[in-house]
Amino acid sequence: MCRADRGVVLGLHRSGPDRDVLEHALSLGVRGIDTAYNYRGFTSHRALACTAGDLLGEFTVSTKVGYFPSGTGERPMHSLDPDRLRTAVERSAHELGRSPDLVFLHNPELALSGLGPAESYDRLAAACAALAGAARSRICGAWGIATWDPRPLAAAVEHDTSHIQPGVLMLRAGLSVAAPMLSAGENVCRVLDVAPECRWGMSPFGGSTTDPAWSAVDLRAFLAADQDCSTSQAAFRLAYELPPVARVAVGTSNPVHLRDLVAATTLRISDSAISRYRELIQKKGP
Predict the structure, then answer these.
(1) Three-state secondary structure call for residue 195
(2) 3-class state of residue 266 by DSSP
(3) Is there a contact between 248 and 217 (Cβ–Cβ < 8 Å)?
(4) pLDDT digits (tens, 9 = 90+) for 88-120
(5) Are 151 and 182 in contact (CB under 8 A)?
(6) Does domain 7-284 have CATH number 3.20.20.100?
């Protein structure tokens, strides 16, 4: 699951699987799909298997476990219970009709916030052991951690990482990531010894490309000279640098938008501009 090139992963967080989009993705060289056990009201895996059909074998599939039905019809509940996580991985494989290539521990920070260092580490280590065991049993190919706020995770692994060795980390990426989040994410990667080629980014636009903020900025200063691109393309390319990641998961149901994002991965950026930006947001603070 580790790649040195800038890969695009088709995310299914906001949009459901669409056969035409999946076919178009393959034609563009996109070979990754990212989903989660709880997406689409816990029906994402079945919907993907049904829609993709014979195409599913052409993709690497990553999913996430950590949210579970509440039993009351309310919002899903989050849990790091090892047995529930193992069961969710098994069910994911069954509903997909194949073993997922990668399973992320989904937002573990929700269960770690407010805990002391020892309890936080123990709870995280037990959850990671469940996913590592699933990988050893070949229920999934590999396992990792996906975190929206890496600060509780950083605190949990500050003094001990012996039983927490994810193969991949997924972090928020891009210009919308505040300095504390960026620093904490990069620190977690260093502490857990996850190389840049095994780091993934998510939410490169901080929600949506239709946000008025994107139409009010000029990102050409971040790029090497003489390159023609849209603001969304520049923003997407920068997501591979803030923090440095090898893949970015992005959701779209628009084939043209997907084509533009794939093209954006070849844009050349200005390293000096990235350095200046980092200095600026560090001085500005939260």
Answers:
(1) coil
(2) coil
(3) no
(4) 999 999 999 999 999 999 999 999 998 999 999
(5) no
(6) yes
